[in-house]
Amino acid sequence: MRVVVLGGVLSTGLGVGVLGEGRPARLGGARTAEGVVAAVRDRLRRGELELPLAGVDTVARWSGLAALGRVDLALARLAEGHTDAVAVLAEAGRAVVAGALYGVWASRSGGVGARLVDGRVDGTVRFCSGAGGLDRALVVALDDTGAARLVEVDLAGPGITSDPASWQAIGMDASDSADVRFDRVVPVATVGPPGWYTDRKGFLLGGGGVAAVWLGGAAGVLDDVFDLLQDKADEHQLAHLGALHAVVTSAATHLEHTARLVDADTATEVHLATCRAVVEHAAWEVVDRVPRAVGPTPLSRDRAFAQRLADLQVYVRQHHAERDLAALGRAVLAAR
């Protein structure tokens, strides 16, 4: 994927091109989970998911993820999961299976999650994006000592079932982020020692990549807003456009700044947490301001537009709001 940096801003078309310049093509036709998986596989075949690793060329990596988010957030969710899995395996010195579509399933939401019993994966994992369409997954499971272990699982093997009814979302509906049940599944391999998945340097860098997707999703919504208000915006709508342009451009600039710190090996946990908070704030400004700017008509008569806004609202909640902000405040005070 060719990625360029323009005007000091990641190449999402923000800040350098006013009114949505340089936008990528949208997904065609009705969006379904099957169609999103097919679109991700098509990009995988064409080599478009072969992004540089964070720390090698983080600007290019995060620009590529932002561009995917600008196309479609459900597509970007699966693509980001695949690229994250590839990066995790690279960090562990392990090869990927050629042509396989990967995901990372690590949630322990609601008190449930995977565990290792006699070396086998057992239990239910929530929010498994691409539950019905991936080939392999890196799954976080607790061993009998309570330590988190990362295991690679072949999803075509026995003992793995997804529950489509568990994913009732309107936003991010086509990401198929369902519950997956593992019934004493034999893993392909164990990746890294106990606790390695969250202790490794790449864990925080992966969170920056997710923020890049949020930024791309915000840009995708603004593309539509610019089209809707072109040549007919009143003063109040123009004020919203100006505010949104400023906050999203600022977030893009901050994301690029953080990426450059990563590449210089000077980024700290505070830098990366601040980056996520800045992008989350920008995305939430989009979610809050856009309905006030455009009114009810496109929200009720343009399904694709309403879907993109709903997707952004759900996806950005990977940031844990005040919990993450409190952790950031604690880290900032500790660093003084």
Automatic annotation (TrEMBL):
GO molecular function, one term: oxidoreductase activity, acting on the CH-CH group of donors
Coiled-coil region(s): none
Keyword terms: FAD, Flavoprotein
Keyword Flavoprotein: yes
Highest taxon, organism lineage: Bacteria
Name of a matching Pfam family: Acyl-CoA_dh_1
InterPro entries hit by this protein: Acyl-CoA_Oxase/DH_mid-dom_sf, AcylCo_DH-like_C, AcylCo_DH/oxidase_C, AcylCoA_DH/oxidase_NM_dom_sf
SUPFAM superfamilies per record: Acyl-CoA dehydrogenase C-terminal domain-like, Acyl-CoA dehydrogenase NM domain-like
Domain Acyl-CoA dehydrogenase/oxidase C-terminal: 195-315
Family named by the database record: Belongs to the acyl-CoA dehydrogenase family.
Name of the molecule in the record: Dehydrogenase
